Structures are given as structure tokens and as C-alpha cells.
Amino acid sequence: DGGITQSPKYLFRKEGQNVTLSCEQNLNHDAMYWYRQDPGQGLRLIYYSQIVNDFQKGDIAEGYSVSREKKESFPLTVTSAQKNPTAFYLCASSSGIYQQAFFGQGTRLTVV
Amino acid sequence: KNEVEQSPQNLTAQEGEFITINCSYSVGISALHWLQQHPGGGIVSLFMLSSGKKKHGRLIATINIQEKHSSLHITASHPRDSAVYICTTTGNQFYFGTGTSLTVIP
Question: How many CA atoms lie within 13 A of B99 on its CB side?
């Protein structure tokens, strides 16, 4: 079945460590996105990519890095520079940047 | 002031009631999306609208571009409709409402 897969669902890391969240899609979508959700707040865009080997910063890119070496994959690295990394992270993809987005199930990251 | 405002923030309804969630935005958009987020966090895209009205089952979404307003209606609500509903706009930038938490009581 076509879809978008995030892993893992829950992730725990020690403060100061970098951590990479996986996002894979087999929908043949060009555009992929990473969002962060905090309790009581809406989704906020971290990074997005419209095409392979290209990505753009969103509203809250500081402390994060991404790569888009393959169309299917858009991993997000939460670096030690991110001041408040504990959050729920959602990945999405769409056939084009203004097209309907499909979301993964999310990764809940807890930094201790 | 947020670029996208949703109301109400929280909504409790009896099973069978007609529900309306509103979304107003202040930016230029290419399209508006309605998303449904379940308690586990997973999100489903319900509608993408750039004009008029769309219907899917018991869900209806409308948009008025001139008034910069969209509504999501749920007819004959059911407890399984309990979720957070989020409107989001796409254009030069992406903006999200903070969501409406809906609880439908049997």
C-alpha cells in the first residue's frame, strides 16, 4: 500500500545528543515537509523540500537539519543546538507544494 | 494576531448533532486544507479547497475566498468523529490554525 512512514513512533535521547528522525514515502511525491507540534500549539513548519537535493527553511528551522538525497526519503536531524527538542514531529508529502498533503503517524521525541 | 484563526477551540456535542468549525485567515492563499488529528497524533487530510464546497460522506467543507473564511461541517456527528480538526493554508507560506478539539458524546 502507498503511504508515508515515520519511525520510530517514540524516541528518547539524552540532552546534547543529535538524533535523526526517519520519513519515507512511496507515493512518488515530489514535495516533503517536516512539522513540529507542541501541546496547545498548532503545527509549525521546520523544513520542506520541493524536489530532490533541494530544501527550504520553514518558520522554526534553527537547531534542525535535513537532507533530500532520494525522492522517497526526507530525514530530519534534531541537533544539540535545538533548545527545546521535546515535541511531536510530523512528516508529510504531497505531489506538489500546493497539493493535498499526506501525513505520517508522527514521532514523539523526548529529550531527558 | 495569528494568520489563521479557528473557532471554537473546544467543542463538545451530543451524538447526532450538526457541528460547524470555522476558520478565518488574513493571508493570500492558493488553497486551504482541513486536517483531522486523532488522539494518537496521526493526521488525515480531509479536504483541500481553493473555492466553493466539497463533500465527503458526512463531512462538508466550504470556502469563501472574498471573505477569507472556511467552514467544516459534520452532519449526524458520531463519537468516532472525536478528534482535533486543523485548518491550514498554503500559498507563499504555510499557516496553521491551533485546532479545534471536538468531543462527541454518545
Answer: 22
